[in-house]
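Private note to self, pasted from the team thread so I don't lose it. Backbone tokens:
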């Protein structure tokens, strides 16, 4: 879950391809590379920190996710496992750069959801797991808001 920055300073926070082309466990279905990305994108949707572009392009998926009709994995798969700057509002990008790009999301995800599992890729895509990480992300977001004023 590393951040890369292009020459224009536009961030790509994550991409599932980098996971399943890397050291992804061979015994897992490829969909497991999308779970952590989808859970973060879901939190962005639930907190309305997405961009107008994302809203225009994904209004049906946003609606379906908010109504829990599609899972975090499906949400991420629709976007090819891509998590980039153009999906987020300005505030969403600032927080994502700090939290996701800075490695805190990965640490929280592993601590909360994959502590006893062989890897972060073994986390089950469930609403229970989503709720756990979403509550934690919300706490981190409130703390970040205090830091930036």
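Design output:
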């Amino acid at each position: 879950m590393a951040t890369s920055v292009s020459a224009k300073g536009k961030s790509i926070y994550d991409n599932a391809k980098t996971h399943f082309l890397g050291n992804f466990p061979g015994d897992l279905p490829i969909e497991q590379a999308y779970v952590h990305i989808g859970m973060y994108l879901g939190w962005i949707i639930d907190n309305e920190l997405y961009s107008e572009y994302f809203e225009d392009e994904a209004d049906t998926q946003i609606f379906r996710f908010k109504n829990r009709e599609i899972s975090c994995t499906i949400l991420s798969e629709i976007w090819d496992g891509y998590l980039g700057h153009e999906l987020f509002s300005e505030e969403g990008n600032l927080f994502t750069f700090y939290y996701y790009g800075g490695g805190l999301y990965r640490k929280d995800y592993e601590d909360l959801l994959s502590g006893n599992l062989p890897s972060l890729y073994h986390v089950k895509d469930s609403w229970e797991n989503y709720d756990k990480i979403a509550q934690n992300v919300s706490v981190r977001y409130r703390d970040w808001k205090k830091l930036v004023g």
